[in-house]
Specification:
Blueprint: H1 2-18, E1 28-34, H2 36-42, E2 51-57, E3 75-77, E4 87-93, E5 98-104, E6 116-121, H3 132-135, E7 140-147, E8 150-153, E9 163-164, E10 167-169, E11 177-181, E12 186-188, E13 202-210, E14 218-224, E15 228-235, E16 238-245, E17 250-254, E18 265-271, E19 275-280, E20 283-289, E21 299-301, E22 312-321, H4 327-337, E23 344-351, H5 352-356, H6 362-368, H7 372-414, H8 430-437, H9 439-445, H10 455-470, E24 472-473, E25 482-483, H11 486-508, H12 511-543, H13 548-605
Antiparallel strand pairs: 1-6, 1-23, 2-5, 3-6, 4-5, 7-8, 7-22, 9-12, 10-11, 11-22, 12-21, 13-18, 13-22, 14-15, 14-21, 15-16, 16-17, 18-19, 19-20, 24-25
Helix pairs in contact: 7-9, 7-12, 7-13, 10-11, 10-13, 11-13, 12-13
């Protein structure tokens, strides 16, 4: 029994330990998971030298304004939140709300129950946590980032080109790309770290977006050595290898899969001492038995050794390894880095307080993704919501009081005989004048006078006052008789009808605000949704990541504006319908009362 209790206690402790907050100085974290189903469907596993390309945008990240300068507060932790992972930021643009981070995944990640990392952020005092040079495996000789500041090697080897005539182009696969027009090239000088030895094997990979105007032969790269030269080119869209013996014969080796122009494709060349292998988008595109020598001289990109037969198009994320990478690793790279990557699943932002309380609400998480323009529109709808409810509550109280006092007055009036028609009338007081200016005050205080708040009594009071002004006393023996001419009765009726119109106007006062809420609320919410969707798709297009996990948070946040609009309009619609029906009843009672009063008046005084 004692052992069972200890076991249960351990089980209770384990979940909290697994989700322990890494460092209290960081305000937020986001879980990023590698989709195991997508990996299985593609037939690949996570290699030991894998990198994750994290693409952040408004569709999956709403905290760009919370980041420190240059993203210094970013930290990436392992799935158990115990081990910091090496990473670097290729691009961070808080204004346009996008970021690109490369993360070196830990070895053995493929064997974990859930392949995931944690992205921490939200510490303005943090020092820069990037380590570009340390992020790369020792087997990675060179990795080029093509940016506005030129072509640079991101690895610790710093094998920067000695000459680069390519131009930086927006709209690259990952960030900026290098554009080649057929006469431009990048030249890398010989270096000990750049020696490609056949006994070790090596791998060259690059993302290409070939122009449709390619000629018959366009060189992508050329490697030179003391004994051989090797050129990788596109010939009629087919990746082709040309191996030349120095001072001797050459052979041309054509791949089996095309590199279609106008789209991004991953092209890789894997070499060993006895063969060359081509891969297009991670799929084998030809294996060729050859005898290779060492390539330790100049490396040229975008042209051949003579800087001719230049490539036309764009290149992005070029890498060179001093090992022969297998098909699984190349397939993973193509899947992770590709324009339609669906490999990463972005979780909601978490906070330490939310974690300690058992996690945050889905609604709260969705609201965290709402953009500034969405909050502005939701704020406007919030004002409309408050105003509409104030109108509905006040009108309900006022109309309820009016209806109640009308019933009391009707009961008293119906008991009057024609000769006692003025019996219910009383003089107006200062309190009546103040209450007339504020019906809600009357409804809340109850009023001191009889029939206070009754629209029927207001008509009655005006009718009696007008009647008294028009009474004509008889002469002689008929001095006690009082009469009103037909024109006088018509005048009384006209005065009562004018007051009736004003009473109707009072009843309908502020109802237009409900109409505005009903008709304007949904359209204002729709405006917020359209703006949010436009921003979300714009950021997704800019980041190059197209999957449901990237789109869903932004769309859900955008739809929050429509929900807010409906929350304004639906109660206002029901309230308007109810209040309008009550107003119609009171209005009908007033019309009937005017007829009843003038009929009794005619009966008594005409």
């Amino acid at each position: 029994m004692k052992r069972l209790v200890i076991l249960l206690m351990l089980l209770l402790v384990l979940p909290s330990s697994a989700s322990a907050w890494w460092n209290k100085d960081w305000a937020y974290k986001k879980k990023i998971t590698l989709d195991s189903k997508a990996l299985t469907d593609a037939g690949v596993t996570i290699p030991d030298d894998a990198y994750a390309l994290i693409r952040l945008h408004t569709g999956n990240f709403a905290n760009f304004l919370d980041l420190s300068e240059n993203g210094k507060d970013f930290r990436v932790m392992s799935a158990d939140e115990q081990t910091p992972l090496k990473f670097f930021i290729e691009k961070l643009d808080p204004i346009n709300e996008m970021a690109l981070l490369w993360v070196k995944l830990p070895k053995g990640m493929a064997t974990l129950p859930e392949a995931a990392v944690w992205l921490y952020f939200g510490n303005p005092e943090a020092a820069d946590g990037q380590d570009a040079g340390g992020s790369f495996d020792v087997t990675q000789m060179l990795t080029y980032a093509f940016g506005k500041n030129g072509v640079k090697d991101l690895t610790a080897n710093a094998l920067n080109p000695v000459e680069a005539t390519s131009t930086a182009a927006e709209g690259g696969l990952i960030a900026e790309a290098a554009a080649f027009n057929g006469s431009q090239f990048v030249r890398i000088a010989p270096a000990p770290a750049l020696s490609l030895k056949p006994e070790q094997g090596w791998t060259f990979s690059v993302w290409l977006n070939a122009d449709a105007t390619q000629t018959v032969d366009n060189a992508v790269a050329n490697l030179a050595g003391p004994k051989q030269k090797l050129t990788l080119s596109l010939k009629n869209k087919i990746p082709t290898l040309t191996l030349e013996e120095v001072g001797g014969a050459s052979q041309s080796l054509a791949g089996t899969l095309p590199v279609e122009p106008g789209a991004w494709h991953h092209l890789a060349l894997v070499a060993t001492a006895t063969q060359l292998a081509l891969f297009v988008d991670g799929k084998p595109a030809g294996t060729f038995p050859v005898t290779l020598a060492e390539f330790s001289e100049e490396l040229t990109l975008g042209a051949d050794a003579k800087h001719e037969h230049g490539f036309v198009g764009m290149m992005d994320h070029l890498a060179l390894f001093k090992t022969a990478r297998d098909a699984n690793a190349l397939g993973f790279d193509a899947l992770m880095q590709g324009p339609n990557s669906m490999l990463l699943v972005y979780g909601e932002n978490g906070t330490e307080d939310a974690e300690e309380s058992g996690g945050g609400s889905t609604i709260v998480a969705t609201l965290n993704d709402v953009t500034l323009d969405g909050w502005i529109i939701i704020g406007m709808l919030g004002v409309m919501f408050v105003i509409s409810w104030i109108v509905m509550i006040v009108k309900t109280v006022v109309l309820g009081r009016n209806h109640k006092e009308n019933r009391r007055f009707e009961e008293a009036f119906l008991k009057l005989k024609a000769e006692d028609i003025s019996q219910l009338n009383r003089d107006m007081t200062d309190d009546d004048a103040q209450i007339a200016e504020s019906p809600i005050l009357l409804s809340l205080t109850g009023g001191h006078a009889r029939f206070a708040g009754s629209s029927l009594y207001n008509l009655y009071h005006v009718g009696v006052e007008e009647m008294n002004r028009r009474l004509i006393r008889g002469e002689g023996s008929e001095a006690t008789l009082q009469t009103i001419s037909d024109k006088g009765i018509d005048s009384v009726r006209a005065t009562m009808e004018s007051v009736l119109v004003r009473e109707i106007q009072k009843l309908n006062d502020q109802m237009v605000l409900l109409t505005i809420a009903i008709s304007g609320g949904p359209f204002l919410g729709l405006l917020g949704t359209v703006l949010g969707v436009m921003i979300t798709f714009g950021e997704i297009a800019a980041s190059g990541e197209i999957n449901v996990n990237a789109i869903a948070p932004g769309i859900a946040a955008a739809l929050a504006a429509t929900v807010a609009g409906l929350l304004v309009a639906i109660p206002a619609l029901f309230g308007y319908s109810y209040l309008a029906s009550r107003i119609k009843i009171i209005q009908a009672d007033m019309y009937i009362f005017v007829d009843e009063f003038t009929t009794k008046l005619s009966e008594r005084y005409s």
